[in-house]
Automatic annotation (TrEMBL):
Sequence ranges assigned to domain Glycosyltransferase 2-like in this UniProt record: 6-139
Superkingdom of source: Bacteria
GO function term, MF aspect, one: hexosyltransferase activity
Keywords: Coiled coil
Name listed for the protein in its UniProt record: Glycosyltransferase 2-like domain-containing protein
Matches recorded under CDD domains: Glyco_tranf_GTA_type
Naturally occurring in which organism (per UniProt): Pseudolactococcus piscium
Coiled coil keyword on record: yes
Chain coiled-coil ranges: 245-300
């Protein structure tokens, strides 16, 4: 029999996305899922949408837990205490699974005996519609510390492997800290290279230079904490600094490229306006030329009618009419 796998959706004011997240769990091909939805004091229409969606959910067990706002860390720690599955996966309410996501990760866990199965990412930028897929390397402890790969809560985790473990409070990188704990304890990690968690990225994501700088100090302080206990297994902090500096350089290069493209677009627009102005001017000149010709023709006709030849033509026309 397939063991129970708990999927925990954490939601705070994601009314726009929560239905898709729930339905992506309901549509899983894996047959034995416990769905736990934690609403962290939402003030939007999330609860109404959840209530409308739950009756059609096709999973073994489903439960909605409403609570006052506690934040993501306390909510995840509560879920770790209350889930009943042999494995678990977290899912943020603004993300979603492909239909075979759970079954594929579980099969890798069975085949390899790994405690943590981490996927690649399919990232969708909601504002632009642009998307891309990651290609993370196979797991190494050094790679996790250097952040050459990313293990997130959307990984499949064996529940027995996290005994007495919790997410640390007030940490931006609480998931990185959590999986570092597991790695230093010798837990086995495995990449699900052909499976992707669908991340929907919004404009308010933490991606500014200030957040990178702040995170650098945070990451190095986390490694310093582990260094006290695990000594030579922990990399030197300058690796993280170098990585962050490289990311900043990439960000700067990307911004410069966008500025270059913007300048080119402005020049094209300016050139286009100049061309349009020239075309309008040419048309106006042509109209003026035509009007001049018309005026000349009308004047010529008037002169003819006033001339003797013109009067003779009029007399002839009258004679013909008689």
């Amino acid at each position: 029999m397939n063991p129970l796998i708990s999927v925990i959706i954490t939601n705070y004011n994601y009314a726009q996305y929560i239905q898709k997240a729930i339905e992506s769990v309901s549509d899983q091909t894996y047959p034995n899922i416990e769905l736990l939805i934690y609403d962290d004091g939402s003030s939007d229409d999330s609860l109404a949408i959840i209530d409308k969606t739950l009756p059609s959910v096709k999973v073994s067990k489903v439960k909605l837990i409403q609570q006052e706002n506690r934040g993501i860390v306390k909510t995840r720690n509560r879920a770790l205490q209350e889930l009943t599955g042999s494995y678990y996966i977290f899912l943020d309410a603004d993300d979603f699974f492909d239909a075979d996501f759970v079954s594929s990760l579980y099969q890798i866990a069975i085949d390899t005996g790994a405690d943590v199965i981490y996927p690649n990412w399919h990232v969708v930028e909601l504002e632009t519609g642009n998307d891309y897929k990651t290609n993370f390397p196979e797991f190494t402890l050094e790679g996790l510390q250097r952040q050459q790969l990313h293990v997130t809560p959307e990984s499949l985790v064996k529940t027995a492997a996290i005994k007495d473990m919790t997410f640390e409070m007030e940490l931006v990188a609480e998931d990185w800290h959590f999986f570092l704990q597991m790695a230093f304890l010798g837990k086995k990690f495995k990449l699900a290279k052909d499976n992707y968690i669908n991340y929907q990225v919004k404009s308010n994501s933490r991606s500014s230079q200030n957040s990178y700088t702040e995170d650098t100090f945070l990451f190095e302080s986390i490694l310093a904490e582990f260094r006290e206990k695990y000594m030579d297994q922990v990399i030197e902090p300058d690796y993280i600094s170098q990585k962050r500096m490289a990311e900043l350089e990439l960000d700067r290069a990307a911004i410069q490229e966008r500025l270059r493209i913007s300048d080119e677009n402005l020049k094209l627009l300016s050139d286009s306006n100049i061309n349009l102005t020239m075309q309008i001017s040419q048309l106006e000149n042509q109209i003026a030329d035509f009007q001049s010709i018309i005026n000349q023709k009308e004047l010529h006709i008037q002169n003819l009618e006033r001339s003797k030849f013109g009067r003779l033509q009029k007399m002839l026309r009258k004679g013909l009419k008689k």
